[in-house]
Amino acid sequence: MKSLYPECQPFHTFFLDTGTKHKVYVEQSGNPAGIPVIFLHGGPCSGTKPDHRRFFNPEHYHIILFDQRGCGQSLPFGELANNTTQDLIDDMERIRQQLAIKQWLVFGGSWGGALALLYAQQHSTVVSGLIIRAVFLARAKDLAWFTDEGVGRIYPEQWQSLLDTLPKQSTYFVDGLCELLWGDDEISKRRATRAWMAWGAQVALGSLYNPTKTGEHITEQMVKQAKMELHYARNKYFVKENQILEHCHLIQHIPTVIIHGRQDLMCPIEAGLRLHQALPDADYKILPTAGHIAQGEEMIAALVNATDQFVEKLALIGH
């Protein structure tokens, strides 16, 4: 079973000038003459990690990671102005052009997978392939599953703890949480942030979730991260309803691998099936015991195997 490649360090980092106050952190590692691949992190607002480089063979790949606006090492952290899905897509194009890359493989999971699909639908001629993990389609039903009567039935105790933080008059969960996080009551703001982060961790990690960590101090950076997640959620991720599926005809020609864990409760596998129905030529892999996160032997093996196969596939067609 395949595992992550050894740790590797970036050979170059820089901050992308976006023409706004945002400075986007970008790093390059691996082989500068290798197959270009861009990694899109989830969230929004989670940021990249050193292990994200390790899904790719550094001898064969020119590995590009970037922290989306307001995330990770990008500056200023948590900035919401000029921070939309289209802004992120435009940043990707700026990175590609600045690095003089003709075509690149696009790799993304969860929110990063949605961003990968949206980018490919706008810039299909520059995408040599897609690896999509934990499919998130940014539909109303996907958000409702997480913030309404969906997965809350699986983890009712944690869900109730989150509901207990909301103003009594709230009729819509996201609006109630936004009222607190954009309000002036610092105690309520941090209490809501703690409950929101604990809820996300429970759903994403499942049985791996450790509730003892929820006692940690809630920092201003944590509040900003929660606000960015809700900024995207309450704006419906800045896309039209069902936009990703309806525009899949634009990317039928792009070699695509879809990988989804059967046990994923953050992004239920129904979304993976719908994407495969819209992209019937894609290689669709269901992992019986994997969940949402890009960890665990089964998930890591599937992702590394996909990147290894693209080395052979893209070499055959001259990339």
Alpha carbon gyration radius: 19 Å
Structural class by SSE content: alpha/beta
In total, how many beta strands? 8
Strand content: 15-25%
CATH topology of the largest domain: Rossmann fold
Q: Which of globular, elongated, flat, extended, rod-shaped describes the shape?
A: globular
Q: Main sheet?
A: 8 strands, mixed
Distance N terminus to C terminus?
27 Å
* Helix proportion: 25-40%
Biggest sheet, spatial arrangement of strands: 1-2-4-3-5-6-7-8
Poorly predicted runs of 5 or more residues: none
The ordered H/E elements are EEEEHEHEHHHHHHEHEH
Provide the number of structural domains.
2
CATH 2nd-level architecture of the largest domain = 3-Layer(aba) Sandwich
- CATH class category name of the largest domain: Alpha Beta
Q: Average pLDDT, to the nearest integer?
A: 95
- Number of separate helices: 10
